[in-house]
Amino acid sequence: MNIRVGIVGISGFGGGEALRLLANHPSFELVYAAGDSSAGKSLADLYPGIASRLANLVVEKWDPDNLPELDLLFASMPTGASAKALAGVRDDVKILDIGGDHRYAGGWVYGLADVWPSEIVGQSRVANPGCFPAATQIALAPLLKDGLIDPENIIIDAKTGISGAGRGGGTGLSYATHNENLVPYGLLNHVHMPEMTHTIERLSGGSARGLVFTPHLVPMTRGILVTIYCRGSATTRQCLDAARACYAESHFVRVTDLPPHTKWVSGSNLAIVNYAADPSRNLVMAMGVVDNLGKGAAGQAIQNANLMCGLPEAEGLDGMSLWP
Ligand SMILES: NC(=O)C1=CN([C@@H]2O[C@H](COP(=O)(O)OP(=O)(O)OC[C@H]3O[C@@H](n4cnc5c(N)ncnc54)[C@H](OP(=O)(O)O)[C@@H]3O)[C@@H](O)[C@H]2O)C=CC1
Ligand SMILES: CC(=O)N[C@@H](CCC(=O)OP(=O)(O)O)C(=O)O
User: EC no. (predicted)?
Assistant: First the structure.
């Protein structure tokens, strides 16, 4: 079966990763590429390493009124740009928005594919979670569902690779600035707080009003590690058992006995989680790693698109992570 797909924002880091994954997808055929300043360039101009059969596809100026025959569109535009840009897309074209504008928005399903896959099956408007929420929510979901932690007192300490800021990430992200440098940012009210609050409250049935989230930029290209501090009297074994039960059928979530490394998931759609708990201190720690461009963006986008189109959720996504 050939499902005709397009990518708007194909020159960006998220769109480029979607292209890389779609190039080997057995059911999705890339027939349309769009953008803004890169319009007129071929995929070979943008990506010298592109598979030759896609090399001559030319990036078109984004125009929702002028789409070719298309079944599904991946949108990977800057957050703030996609709500308006996608509003005019025909109803018969399914949309997977990798950007932030439609998360928990009316008419859109929040695509937390590893936690509620059945809600995504057959849908036509799905919003991908942000990269930090992807790692955080997967790590917390088993604990919240089983009531093992207090939803009101959760502290998320996150580290991200620089590609999380996008190709157009800004002049402050130069090599000289960030090589051998660590810096927290987005203190107190990072843009991902509302979606994480919403998901924690949905999964626990309680309030997440004490949520603290602090991301840090780390001098690596890809990868996110979240270390999450929670209040609860569960043991490490109970947390690991809850996660293993929760993800027993999962293609993409692995539960390890050791703290995970970001490299274990690089280039893949995997999320790896681990837990440590000390009931005598009322302390539960959850750890999770994802590739910000994989599970954090294009990987989960394709997982969601598979579900939207009634395909097996892992189709085109079963490659191994990069190593070393
Ligand atoms: N980088 C990451 O790890 C993650 C990113 N995201 C989200 O994905 C989205 C894309 O991020 P990312 O790929 O990193 O960003 P980039 O800055 O790398 O790319 C942005 C893309 O958007 C395109 N674009 C900008 N304005 C328009 C417009 N008006 N019409 C059409 N296309 C436009 C650009 O096209 P052109 O070059 O042609 O101008 C470019 O391809 C953002 O919402 C981001 O927050 C989500 C999770 C993780
Ligand atoms: C390193 C860096 O800047 N990362 C981005 C997150 C990328 C992402 O998931 O962004 P959206 O929610 O907009 O899709 C940030 O902290 O805002």
Answer: 1.2.1.38
